[in-house]
Amino acid sequence: MCLVASQVPNTVKAALDQVLAALGTRFPRDYAPRLLERLMQCSAIIPNSPMVPGVPRLDLITQINEVEARKEEYPETIAFIRLLNALLLPVVRHEGMAGGAAGGSGGAANGGSGNTLPAVARITDGGMDLMHLTAFIVQHVLAHLWQRGYRIPTQKWEIAAHCFQHLELMLELCARSSLPPHPDASARQPPGYVIMHDALGGGPVMQSLMHILSPGYADLMEVRTQSDIVAPREMAVVAGLRVMVALLQMDRRFLDELEHSSGHCRYQSLDVHMRAPPKLSNLLAYICYPDSMDIQIEALRIATELTRRLPNTVELLQHPSLPSGTLPSIRRGYAVALRQSLFQSEAIDNLSDAPLASMCDSSDPRAALILALALQNAAEPTGSWASFTHMMLGYEVEVGSMGGISESMLLPKAEYSVLTIIEKALVHQGFRFSRSKPKLYSQMLCLLYRMASLPSSSVPMLEYLAPKNQDLAAALTTALLLLRLEHPESAQRVLVNLLGPIDSGPDMATELMPTGSCALLNLLAGLVDLEVQQPALSDAGLEERRLWQEMVVSDVSIEALLSQPHALASVGGSGVQMQSDTGDYTARSGLVGAAASDLPSASVKAALRYVQQYNAHALVSGARAAAVEAWAHLVQVCFTRLYSQLTIDGQATLVAATSPAEALFEILTASLEGTSRLLASGDATLSPMLCTVVRTLLSKLQEQVVVNMSLGQASDPLAPVRVPPRCHALLRLLLDLMQRARRLQPVRVQLYAALLQYLQFCRGSKLSSCAPVVLEAMLEGWGGSSTMIMGSVAQQLSSSVAKLDATQDAIERGNAALLNEHGPMLVQLLTADALDASAPHLQQSVALHLLSSLVAHQPSTAAMMYSHSVPQTILQQLTSTPQQLLLQNSKQARVAVYVVEAQLALLLRLSQAGPPHQRQLSAQQMYSLHVLQYIGGCKALDFEPEDPSMLRGNQMTDSLRYRLHHLITPLMRLLHSVVASLPDSTSVKSDACQFVEGHYRMMERQLREAASPGAGAWVPGDAELEQAQLSVSLLSRLVPVWHELHPSYGEGLRHALYRLTSVFCCANSKSVSPIVVGLTQMELHCGQRAGINRASVLTRTAQISALRCSLARYLRDSVVYSGHAASAKDGSGTKDSSAAKGHLLMKCLGAGGGAELDAQTARPSLMLIRDMAEQSCVDASSSLEELASLLDLLKTPDLTMDEATCVSKIQEYGPSASCSTLMPLGSGGEESGAAHPDSLFSRRRLTRHYVAMAASKLDHLLGSQLSIVENSLAIVLLHFLRCLPRGSLLSGGAGVSKGALVLAAGARKGENSMQLDEAAASLELMSIPEPTEEDALQLGSRGDLVYFMSRLQETLLKTESLLCKSDAIPHHSVEGIDLMLRTLKSYVISY
């Protein structure tokens, strides 16, 4: 800083300032505050600093006025102001974010050590200590900006830009200050107030701003090709516009405080200064500059402020002093800016989520700002002035126009305006913006709605939305627009007109509407029955046809032109135009001379008549298609987004039918019947639209099954709809339609999906498959009340269950009969589409999933599929197709893998076809096709995927690993299903062993990755967990034939299983698995983080428990069958053989440090098995308690279930997105006090659904945990029975301390002997030799065994406590655990 005040060349000082500015920018938390403090103390800029005799003044004022002005070069001034701004910027912005307190983040990244700035960085009193710096910039730099000479022209614009940036920072500081302004501009006050005084008083600030901004965007356009000049000018203009925005945001508050403090104010607000048409037009016209997004953004912010204050902005822009093209150019500028922004991925959808100050450089807020500006000014014009929005949308706003706003003709295709861009954006790429940018999309719709609702502008907008010759489509489109907007009154009125009784329906195209229950049904009937006959050339006379053939144009006959429109391309230059761009024939000929005069008039007239008839047909068909499309959209909106408005507390209010569900079913049936009539008449163009409606309505029915539980209750809204006659009639319609549309691929695929949805709908609620104890509790709470006696409750429950079973059975029997009747046709169609390699992937997938569903609902269709060689063909493709797909790296390859996944899912369904007692036959039939050999021959299984730690973001879905998972997982499911269904088949096990040997690397990799601690940013997840579980489950079933595996493969897999056991079967607190650690974190943060609740915790817990269950079964069977194999190899059969000889024994390690794997054999220790049993006891106890609480909640009557309970349980057990869906259920959200009755009614049903699903998941999880406990205790007991002598055990353990465990009174030698025999029989250990002391040493030393027994005692206590709790839920059998517990107690007492 000393160099700044030294007598050195100003270029050296400028270079120093640049270095300091770079340091302050790079390290804002360390260097900027300290450098700013030193800069403010520098003598070169201290005001009124004394002069030293004989030493020239070196302050900045002297430098710029005497040194730099004389040279006409200003490097030091530019560098100093840039340095000042660089040091001020982090401090000012930090104060803005933290409000003067410590805040912000990223200190370490910026070189700092914390989140707070040093005390020296505090700027108090609105920056009053910076006043002398601001005064220097205003009085000595800006005041002479346009008067000085510039040897380097760009320096003028650089000076202006940096000065304006400083003014903006000072205004920002002042806006946050609590000090009032002083009426005297020369008084001591924050710099921002001095700037306001100067700007509103017409001082240097305003003069310099006008000097930079007045030339307008046209001046920038002239130098846009000069890259060395245009960039500094753009920077200066952007900075000047930002100062104007800051002044506009602050001027009124400044004037109000001046008037309040002094009683008068001599200034006027800034909009009064900007009222002059030249100034106003120059500022607003910057939107027309296309090369700088920043300039357009600031122009939009200025327009937002000025148009709010100046309602006559449009009139001012048409002042005679302005060029005549000013208004159209501004209108076009807004349209161009909207187009540039809206169709880019960087366009910001919601400004409230991303404030302008926090946007990154790539963010583009222009579209959001333009639409916000249009919505702000979308109001009824004041007086005779048109609003700014009218101008933007292309209304006739010019002064002196003949019609004015109310008689405007909106022509967005001819007149480029914001409406032109909105029209394109609303339908762009199949309504893409409605999904990718929902906020902007809704704002565009809302803008059209507001303009359509204003009296002055409604007629032009409605005429634009409702084009001529399509009145019906226009009316439906307008109704659709009203329904899609947030305007409840309009929506309800339209709903009543569409779905209410016919006498309240609208007056739309009544000649097309036969009498029906509601207007929507009438509209559909009229549109479907409308006869549209296309004219035929054969209707003309023979002579006329002959003349048409003889008359040619460019060697093309007139008949060919009329019958083959594509022939017009060959005569395009001959002056003949017979078809417009809309597909209509035209009656204009450009032929001249003799050729025209020689045409026979009768033939020409006949040709023109045909053209007129064809045009009429095209117009009517187009209007009909537009009306059907609008009708389809209306139905979809009515029965999706607005479905909840049709009922209040479960009672229909707006529909003509008894209930909304019945109205939905009526329109669904009518849509199918209408599609049938269209196909019968040969019109296939409108059928896909109606099929889309069918699918939407079926989806809504599926949703209502979930929401209303659909368990046969009297209060179930679907009870009148989900009855056998209606369901069967609907299915019959679907099957008949499929028969008619067998040659129409678009319609056929839609019907496939609809039939699949129908079959899922008929399955009813998932709750019907809940555990009996859950279903019983749920029905008790649904139908019970606090005043009902227990007998009547039980009677009602029995009646409800019987009714539910009878209804479901009748629906399923009727469906099966219809599917069996149409089975050959269905299987033939579906097989052709499913196995057609050239068909679209979506078509193949839908056909395959429908085939799987047919097998589930009608097992007899499995035989038809075998007769059509469906499984045989799929198996044959396994050897080549997956390998080709996995090697491709494209989106199409990824989609094609989904088709293979659907094929394997179909094979899995075929292997499990029929009721449980027939599934072994189904698996045998599948096995007879050599399914295991085909699976084993799939070379793609041996592909080595990428290192997961090298994949980032979207690379995972495009990776070989991702595609391989979608192939391996369904293949392993199929393999496991066949092996599990045929447990006694030696050939199946032998083939499975061959598969394991053939794909050893794949299985070893799956086990290794699941046990991995992760690498880099990658950690194992659901995919690795599922694959490992399938592999372990398969290997556990091969334990009896493990000796058939090659020794290297068998030992390798065994060690991989042991490693997996050490990771997943220890106590959760000891596990190094990221999956288990993640589960612990999920439990800690349950309900506190987005996407984490009890439902997600239960899902992950169930996955881990399934893997532990498979591992426990494998370890138990390994211990059992290793003994069988050892006995078979020994062959002696003598009783004096060692009881532990040849067994895979585990040791009682852990006394010295708790080892989980034996270092010598790499086998798990018995201490690890004990940990697994104890952890499962703890988990099962927790599951029991949670299950009991959920069952109590399900038994609670509806009347006692309050709003708070419903909300908390939905958030706790619902999907992760349920928190965001709670608000739409109510009328006013959580802050509106008491819940709306309809909201509470819906939430009670959702609460019961999610709680019941969670209770069923807990019940299943409890079964897995109890199985783990039983298998773990069995493993320990197996070792005891084989290795521990029974002498002291059978003698009652006299003299041994019993500790906390004691046998029941009367435990004697005979009872213990019987108990041991019972335990041995249950563990398949018959006739085992008597263990000796030598065998006991196989488990470890005496000290290890005693320590293990003491730890086992704790586990048995927890097991005993678990069994006491399980008495409350008796449907889980715990006899095996009880037997193990009693036997192990005997051993523990002996030690």
Structural key phrases:
two-stranded antiparallel ribbon, 1391 residues, single chain, mainly alpha
What does this structure look like?
By secondary structure, the chain is mainly α. 61% of the residues lie in helices and 1% in strands. It contains 58 helices and 6 strands. The strands form 3 sheets. A two-stranded antiparallel sheet has the order 1-2. The protein has a two-stranded antiparallel sheet with strand order 3-4. Helix 4 runs parallel beside helix 6 (154-175) and helix 49 (1094-1130) packs parallel to helix 53 (1237-1283). The N and C termini lie far apart (84 Å). 43% of the residues are buried. Residues 97-121, 504-515, 568-599, 784-791, 1126-1142, 1218-1237 and 1290-1310 have low confidence and may be disordered.
Topology:
Layout: H1 10-26, H2 31-41, H3 60-71, H4 75-98, H5 131-141, H6 154-175, H7 191-200, H8 204-213, H9 216-222, H10 227-262, H11 270-273, H12 277-284, H13 293-309, H14 313-316, H15 326-342, H16 366-376, H17 388-393, H18 418-426, H19 433-436, H20 438-453, H21 458-465, H22 471-484, H23 488-499, H24 519-529, H25 542-550, E1 552-553, E2 556-557, H26 558-563, E3 576-579, E4 585-589, H27 594-597, H28 601-638, E5 647-648, E6 651-652, H29 660-680, H30 687-708, H31 724-740, H32 745-762, H33 772-783, H34 790-821, H35 823-834, H36 841-857, H37 861-867, H38 870-877, H39 881-887, H40 891-911, H41 919-927, H42 931-936, H43 960-981, H44 986-998, H45 1000-1010, H46 1022-1037, H47 1047-1064, H48 1074-1084, H49 1094-1130, H50 1166-1194, H51 1203-1213, H52 1218-1225, H53 1237-1283, H54 1287-1290, H55 1309-1322, H56 1333-1336, H57 1342-1366, H58 1375-1390
Antiparallel strand pairs: 1-2, 3-4, 5-6
Helix pairs in contact: 1-2, 1-4, 2-4, 4-6, 5-6, 6-7, 6-10, 7-8, 7-10, 10-13, 13-16, 15-18, 16-20, 20-21, 22-23, 22-28, 24-28, 24-29, 25-28, 28-30, 29-30, 29-31, 30-32, 31-32, 31-34, 32-36, 33-34, 33-50, 35-36, 36-40, 39-40, 40-43, 41-43, 43-46, 45-46, 45-47, 46-49, 47-49, 48-49, 49-53, ...
